[in-house]
Structure formats: structure tokens, C-alpha cells
């Protein structure tokens, strides 16, 4: 299992506008994280939170650099400043969608698949 420690950075609020708010973290040059969508676990304080993460560029949107964007299934009660991100299972490659509705539909599928996989962790 691959783990990284990161400080949260500000995002462009795209996920929130789509109905899937995200926490954003920078990728570092030496990171050997396969680009794509992952099932992840974040350790925030003493608690663990699961979610889906896009690693790399958000291909549907023209601007923005490579990042780790995480949508959590349950929201933490405290503000996240720094966290450990555990990459549990690779789900798929990143895709470029022609329409925002297609992207939202795929995110819902990713979440459903990730939640089913939680039974194995």
C-alpha cells in the first residue's frame, strides 16, 4: 500500500460545484503514484475516512496542474490541514469527458465501486 503525507491546498471548487466536494493536495516530482482514480483512506487525527481520489490532471477541464483530489464519503468534523493519504485500490485511468453530466455519472459509478470494495479493507 502506497502512503503519502500532505498538507491541504486550496482548489478551484470544481468538485463542490459538481456535487462532489474535494480536498486538494499537491503531487511532488518524486511521487510514484499511478495517475487515475483510486479508493483511498485518509488519516485525520485519530480517525480514518474513506473516499475516491483523482491523481493527476482533471482532463475534462483545460486548466490546472497535477494534484491529488479526494472526495470523502463522510466529512470530517474538523478542518483538514495535513493528512496521511493511503492509496488502497486503483480503480481506472483518468478520462476526458465531453459533457459535465458524463463526468458526474462516472464519479457516481466510481463512488459505488469504491464503496463495494470497502468490504475488503
Overall description:
With 121 residues, the protein is α+β, with helices and mostly antiparallel strands. A six-stranded antiparallel beta barrel has the order 1-2-5-4-3-6. It is globular, with a radius of gyration of 13 Å. 19% of the residues lie in helices and 40% in strands. The protein contains two helices and six strands. Strand 3 and strand 4 (47-56) form a beta hairpin. The chain has one domain (2-120): Beta Barrel (Elongation Factor Tu (Ef-tu), domain 3).
* SSE string: EHEEEEEH
Percent in helix: 10-25%
Q: Largest sheet, order of strands side by side?
A: 1-2-5-4-3-6
Number of structurally distinct domains: 1
- What value does the average pLDDT take? 88
CATH architecture field: Beta Barrel
Tell how many strands the DSSP assignment holds.
6
Kindly name the structural category: alpha+beta
User: CATH topology, which one?
Assistant: Elongation Factor Tu (Ef-tu), domain 3
End-to-end CA span:
12 Å
Query: Major sheet, described briefly?
Result: 6 strands, antiparallel, barrel
Amino acid at each position: 500500500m502506497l502512503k503519502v503525507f500532505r498538507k491541504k491546498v486550496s482548489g478551484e471548487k470544481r468538485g463542490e460545484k459538481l456535487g462532489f466536494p474535494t480536498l486538494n493536495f499537491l503531487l511532488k516530482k518524486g511521487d510514484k503514484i499511478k495517475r487515475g482514480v483510486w479508493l483511498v483512506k485518509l488519516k485525520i487525527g485519530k480517525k480514518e475516512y474513506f473516499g475516491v481520489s483523482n491523481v493527476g490532471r482533471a482532463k475534462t477541464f483545460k486548466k490546472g496542474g497535477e494534484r491529488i483530489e479526494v472526495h470523502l464519503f463522510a466529512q470530517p468534523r474538523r478542518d483538514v490541514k495535513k493528512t496521511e493519504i493511503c492509496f488502497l485500490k486503483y480503480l481506472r485511468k483518468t478520462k476526458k469527458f465531453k459533457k459535465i453530466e458524463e463526468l458526474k455519472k462516472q464519479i457516481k459509478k466510481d463512488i459505488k465501486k469504491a464503496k463495494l470494495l470497502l468490504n475488503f479493507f
